[in-house]
Amino acid sequence: MARKDAIIKVRDLLIEFGNGKKKIKAVKGVTFDVYKGETFGLVGESGSGKTTVGRAVMGIQPLSDGAIYFKNRMAYGMSPDLFKLNIAILKNLDKMKSNQDTTTLRLNTYLEEFKRVDYKYTQSKYYDFKTKTLKEYPDGVSRIIPEGVNLKKTKLVTHKKDANLSFVKVAVKDNLKSLLKILRIQQKTLRFIDSISDWIDIDKELDLAINKYQKETYNLVAGIKELENKIWNALEKMSKIKQDVIEGKSNSVSKFFNDLGTELKEIITLHKSISTLIKMAENEQFINIALTSPSRLRNKYKNQIEQKIQKHKNQNNILMAEKYQNILELMNLKNIQEQIKKSEIFEMPNAKRQRNLKKEMQMIFQDPASSLNERMAIEQIIAEGLDNFPELYKNEDAANAYMEWFNSNEDAKAGTIKRSDVKWKDVKHFLVLQLLTTVGMLPEHLSRYPHEFSGGQRQRIGIARALVMKPSFIVADEPISALDVSIRAQVMNLLAKFQQELDLTYIFIAHDLSVVRFVADRIAVIYRGDIVELAEADELFYNPLHPYTKSLLSAVPLPDPEQERKKVHYKYEPEIEHSDYLVDFPQWVEVKNGHFIYANERELKAYKKAYNEYEKNK
């Protein structure tokens, strides 16, 4: 399906529960499209966040961040605030800068301790921290560890001596986490500004400048990440060298200090380079903040840029002065954030649009019993939507349909009726009755109450309640999970029938992949709030790539007991599968032909290889 056919667009959906340190991210920046006329399957185990996504799309669940667009108009959430996003990036850069300063002190302390121990055991010299000079030990006793001695028997490796290095490792870990936050915010920002000119009338020069400086900051941050990765790897090597001593695998004191010294020197060099890059990134990020600043803060940033221009002129730095002069001129153009807010697509829905959304978007709930009011008769339950939206039955089309039905009814004793005889309450009753019989129920069921029906019948009533609103889009939240196996097929066939007849679009939520396969055009697999794989239904079943998808598929029971006994179950262990996510961040990428996956560089290479093998053998 063409991209323009998307009826629902979910962008960077974030949903959080709780407050402060107890805050839990139930959905973590999910992005996907649902195309007109398709059934989009959303699959995952209990607690994966699939129902939360469905409720958010319907406007039932408040959004912490992100936006949901319906027919290319904002439905729920809010458009990205470029200024706030850029401020968030700068805050994380500042946090990293502060971390760098503290880490520098710890590295220097560790280096001094390293020198002291090195000189002591290789030259039997005392290294004075204050004077930075070597001295002889006054007792004249040699401290040299001879070559060939098992270093496990010495005191070369102790927890006390590693305290500063342990701090460095924690600091690097914190920096990597900050980098992950920055890169995700930058990717979100770049995705938005890359397409912004399609939605708002923005000055071309301003559009190019915003894209340019956002990408420059992104490249600098990506460079910092590469250096932090190298520091992490060097720290891991140092840990391995020390672990070899603890395990009695090291017999050379000179090699021990040489190997440690090489890695330490590399860490210090990389650390200095990172500090330089952070400073450069902060300078570039200031430009991003200035270009996207709101009107109320614009003069503040203009003044700061004017100061920078004057500073560079005083230093005869003509190129930098011209650069900031160009930024100052761009800031006199229309404010981009205000243009975004005024744009029709990003405009928050007013009361009238919100009301229409409730009519066009409906939901079929997981538990048919609890979703129906026990104190209301079935006719009242189905007609409730018509009571709230009387225009659905108080119209000429509905009146004419009622007249045609009444006059063609062979059992009618009152004869025929004219348009002037039509009463709106009769039209409403007719529409409810017509819909109830369409879902396989009987006319006498109208006066009964929910507790008088089976689970399958109650779900049919729930479907009728949703369809009476004449929606174009329905979220079906596990509509068959609470039903008997024999009833499931009937309900699924009903949903398929109405989709064809009424041109409906579904999000079909389930935890059973075998069920979704037969109803969905495309399937997204969600795990702990992240969509980890998305592909066409058949493609996902014949060529699953993500280990979580494989584990879900292996859990589907086979009808043949012999095959079921022989089947190999795939156990998904994320801590093992994705152990390198700290240094090799995962991203949402397309492997090939609409098959998307959440993976890092290492995994992506393996997935592409597996995909190519599948294509060869197909």
UniProtKB/TrEMBL annotation:
It comes from the Bacteria. InterPro entries: AAA+_ATPase, ABC_transp_ATP-bind, ABC_transporter-like_ATP-bd, ABC_transporter-like_CS, Oligopep_ABC_C, P-loop_NTPase. GO terms for molecular function: ATP binding; ATP hydrolysis activity. It holds the Pfam family oligo_HPY. SUPFAM superfamilies: P-loop containing nucleoside triphosphate hydrolases (SSF52540). One of its GO terms (biological process) is peptide transport. Gene3D superfamilies: P-loop containing nucleotide triphosphate hydrolases (3.40.50.300). Keywords: ATP-binding, Nucleotide-binding, Transport. Residues 8-553 form the ABC transporter domain. Belongs to the ABC transporter superfamily. This is Oligopeptide ABC transporter ATP-binding protein. The gene is oppF.
